Amino acid sequence: MSGKPVLHYFNARGRMECIRWLLAAAGVEFEEKFIERPEDLEKLKKDGKLMFEQVPMVEIDGMTLVQTRAILNYIATKYDLYGKDVKERALIDMYAEGIADLSEMIIHLVVTPPDQKEAKIALIKDRTKNRYLPAFEKVLKSHGQNYLVGNRLTRVDIHLLELLLYVEEMDSSLLAPFPLLKALKSRLSNLPNVKKFLQPGSQRKPPTDEKTIEEARKVFKF
Amino acid sequence: MTKKPVLHYFNGRGRMESIRWLLAAAGVEFEEKFFETREEFEKLIQGGALMYEQVPMVEIDGMNLVQTRAILRYIAAKYDLYGKNLEEQAWIDMYVEGLRDLSDMIMYFPLSLPKEREMNLEYILQRATTRFFPVYEKALRDHRQDFLVGNRLNWADVQLLEVILMVEECKANVLSGFPLLQDFKVRTSQIPTINRFLQPGSQRKPPLDDESIGTVKNIFKFEQGMFLKNMSTIVAEY
């Protein structure tokens, strides 16, 4: 009998958050082991659990998976959130990778030096409203369906919802020109598993503050 | 009759090279449409075929696919280079994602400022020999097959060979200390489709020379001296 997946990461969003979202949306309960001191990370490395000496790492179905995308692909396939065939997968991947590119810029903000931050934020906002959000609005407009691919929930809807929430945290006016995205966000937020994850007390992590970054720096030495 | 895939990129390796490798290894013939100036690239953007105004883009099976990983995964799945079950898929994903970090470093290396070149090269070689190659040497040792996953050629094998050859271009004897990787390189190079791709005259691209670096910078408006460690952010910013 397989136990719950166990997520090994820092107690923060970082690169693990999208994995938490996907498991939650799939209705999969999971445990978390937080890395809080340098010794915690060293132990994982010494035990040979980190193929590239990096986290995220997820213990699932007897495997020790690393690399965010490998983990997401596994979960999406296992829980049938990856489309019905190879062509749907291609669309899902194309949309998900665009979401990942913008998310990556947002993740990097927390470690951007203060004197570069303003320029970075301006660039993110520009890309959000001129490149990425229009692209996804266009997808929804092209088929008029309630989900991005294949007329049912797939992983990319969840990735997009997560991104839209971060965009909103940054500047809620960015979403204003995109009615279909706003409707998608609303609809997805009301799905039972998603709604539960959005409640206080879930395993969803808050925005990363300075204190959290400082602690992460000590452990991960960046 | 199926139309051949059409690859849209500049005439260089960049992010398209892994896609060329995978198609070639799968024995799939493909066409290439190169753009050489900023104007030609903008024309492609204005045509509306680039979802995020970025390349690589591959026309395949009626789709205009962008995003390197989306394209690679589609090819791998379509041509049965993605393992036989979910577990094998996971191993392949871990291996290819690991290699991506190293291959990105190598990809950006020609854009180093002259004064940073030596330092960046040392960094690449240090990472290759202490972080990455040991992982794949161990994988081959533990798995005891000719391939990284399962018992037949897959995407991870093709990617590993590609990266080994690129690192060797940086330092010829970089595989000394990794006997299984050396055997892997020789053996995999002899697979007929791959062997053909390694011959002169194939669609494999050479490393960027100074002239090509200038062309790339003009097309994509790169600045000189991009830091290796922020590669993924840099990509998104373009």
Automatic annotation (TrEMBL), chain A:
One of its GO terms (cellular component) is extracellular exosome. Residues 85-208 form the GST C-terminal domain. Its EC number is 2.5.1.18. Residues 3-83 form the GST N-terminal domain. GO terms for biological process: glutathione metabolic process; xenobiotic metabolic process. CDD domains: GST_N_Alpha (cd03077). It catalyses: RX + glutathione = an S-substituted glutathione + a halide anion + H(+). GO terms for molecular function: glutathione transferase activity. It holds the Pfam family GST_N. Keywords: Transferase. Belongs to the GST superfamily. Alpha family. PANTHER family: GLUTATHIONE S-TRANSFERASE (PTHR11571), GLUTATHIONE S-TRANSFERASE-RELATED (PTHR11571:SF233). This is glutathione transferase. The lineage of its organism: Eukaryota, Metazoa, Chordata, Craniata, Vertebrata. The gene is LOC100753857.
UniProtKB/TrEMBL annotation, chain B:
The keyword Endoplasmic reticulum does not apply. Residues 3-83 form the GST N-terminal domain. Residues 85-208 form the GST C-terminal domain. The keyword Transferase applies. This is glutathione transferase. Its EC number is 2.5.1.18. Belongs to the GST superfamily. Alpha family. InterPro entries: Glutathione-S-Trfase_C-like (IPR010987), Glutathione-S-Trfase_C_sf (IPR036282), Glutathione_S-Trfase (IPR040079), Glutathione_S-Trfase_N (IPR004045), GST_alpha (IPR003080), GST_C (IPR004046), GST_superfamily (IPR050213), Thioredoxin-like_sf (IPR036249). GO terms for biological process: glutathione metabolic process; xenobiotic metabolic process. Keywords: Transferase. Pfam families: GST_C_3, GST_N. GO terms for molecular function: glutathione transferase activity.
